[in-house]
Structures are given as structure tokens and as C-alpha cells.
Amino acid sequence: MPEGHTVHRLARAFGELFTGEALAVSSPQGRFAAGAALLDGHVLVASEAWGKQLFLGFADPAHAGAGRTAPDADDVRWLRVHLGLYGAWTFAGDGSTAVVHAIGAPRRRIGERETVPAGPGEAAEADGAWSPPPPRGAVRVRLVGAHAVADLTGPTACEVVDGAEKRAVEDRLGPDPIRERGPGEPDPRETFVAAVRRSRSPVGLLLMNQDVVAGVGNIYRAESLFRARLDPLRPGRDVPTDDLCALWDDLVVLMRDGTRTGAIVTTRPEDRDRGPDLPDAPGRRRVRQNTDGAPDAVPADEAFYVYHRDGLPCRVCGTPVLLKELAGRNLYWCGVCQA
């Protein structure tokens, strides 16, 4: 499942590719035909992320063209998407579009692994018009603009909501370390600390609760707790406030860096040559990063302290990294550094 930084990168990609365009919206699979009909021909006026939720705002072309529709206007319809475990967006373009951040263009897949090899733009028709490639697989939603197409497959959630329904979803979510604080919004760090401190649940479980903090997944959970030297099984109410403030501040830095680079890197430079990886064990899965193969990128094998390193020596103390299941998800930690 993609973590919050990937969804924020998605929101940025949609904004750069389609903002201000009237899009052809369809459901090749057919399961979202009614929702697609509500958005077809409408103009993309906003692209936002909150944690793992993506919101694409569409306005009537008559209003958007006249500049009368603001992203928060009541007449904006929102496509809400939660990718879940299997969802992904696939993009293709005519070669004329460029993306500011380095996540691959004009063709890229953004999900747990953000990119697929980039290729040339699709061939133009005889009259010079660009023809988007046919849908591949069970495409729930297809968005077609003048120079690019985006296909959604396998999402956990995909629906059209109005402004009030969008705000209701956001109100249920915890603060997002990547988002900037909006006018009138409470301090996100204070909100996070209060939510953890009033719970008896283990802090390692609370970090995966999107009502407590939005966007943190299994990698950021394991790595941020290691960097904070916090026992993931310690009850939230027993974690000192200062430690939770430092944990939040570190998540802000790590997750915003992930949004900027497209890769999760949590190791400090001085720790990357300590506790070298052992040969692959049966069933051990390498974590792919968007920056794999990029010059000067931190190799994926050196990017984490504990995630997917169970049985390998801790990079700091040398003790084997531990693994257990917590609420159906694998939890990785060092029993010495996080005692």
C-alpha cells in the first residue's frame, strides 16, 4: 500500500498534467460508469491529498472558464480515491508534457512502486491529433486530457463526493505531516500528541491508525519509531509528550523529503555502512524505490534501519532486528535500541 508521500506526489502530478483542462472521464471497466458521467467534460480545478486519500476537484466548464469556481466552492465535485493494497494509477502522454518532479514521464505508474520505464509518446493519428493508448486491465476510471491520460485500477475506494462529504472525510482523519497547516486549523503536532496520549493502545499500532496520523504506513511506522528509540509496544499514554513531539517533527522531515525525492530514506549517512545486509533469505522481499538506479541515490538496501531487515544486524547495535505481527501487519524493531 502506498504511503502518504506517494499520494501527495500523485496530487502534484495531476495538478501539473490536467489543471484547467476539461477532461473526458469514463469507466472502461463499467463499475464506475455513473460516477464518471457526473465528471465527464468537467474541468479539473484542484488536486489534493490528505494522508492516503486523493481528492480531484471538478467544476462545470461554464463556471471554471469564467473563473468563478474556487477549489473550495460548494459546486465542485470531488473524485475521492484511496488506492489501498492493490490500487495504482498509470499515466501516458503525447511527449509534450513535462513533470517538474522526478517520478518519470510521460509514462509512469504510481503506487507502491512509483515508476515503470518511460517510453516515447503515443503515435499521432494521420491528422496530427494524439490518440491515447487503449485501457489495459480492469480500468475503473480513465481521465483523458489534451496531452495525457490517467488510468486507475484496483482502488479500495473510488467515489464522487460533494464539498461537505469531502470535509466529513477529512474531519475523520488525523493530521497529515506533509500538509501545511491551513488557516484556522489546530496545531497538528498538538492534535497528534493528544490522540496518542489518551490511548492505551501500543504506539506502534496508533501510528498506523489514520484517525491518529494520516499517511503513515508500515515503513514510516517502523523507521520513525526506531529513530525515536521508542518501543513500539509501549502504550501511547505512557510515551512522554516530549518524545511524541520529537516523533512528529521527525515524521514531518522524513515524509516531506519522501514527497520531494520519491523515495523513503531514513538512515543517517554514518549508519549506512554498519550492519551490512546478509545474503537474501527465502521469501525476503527487496523494497523497490522510485530512485533505484538514479545517480547518487541512496541504495534501497541502505535506506532503512529495521524495515524488512528482520534477522539482520541492527545498524546501530548489531542485535538482530525483531519481527512480529501486530494487528495483521508486520512490525519491525530493535529490542535493544528500542528497549
TrEMBL record:
Family named by the database record: Belongs to the FPG family.
This protein's record includes keyword Glycoprotein: no
BP GO terms, sorted: base-excision repair
Low complexity composition-biased segments: 117-129
Segments for region (Disordered): 113-134, 168-189, 266-296
Domain FPG-type positions: 305-339
EC number of this enzyme: 4.2.99.18
Name of protein: DNA-(apurinic or apyrimidinic site) lyase
InterPro entries: DNA_glyclase_Znf_dom_DNA_BS, FPG_cat, FPG_N, H2TH_FPG, Ribosomal_uS13-like_H2TH, Znf_DNA_glyclase/AP_lyase, Znf_FPG/IleRS
Bias kind Basic and acidic residues: ranges: 268-277
Domain Formamidopyrimidine-DNA glycosylase catalytic: from-to ranges: 2-111
GO terms for MF: class I DNA-(apurinic or apyrimidinic site) endonuclease activity; damaged DNA binding; oxidized pyrimidine nucleobase lesion DNA N-glycosylase activity; zinc ion binding
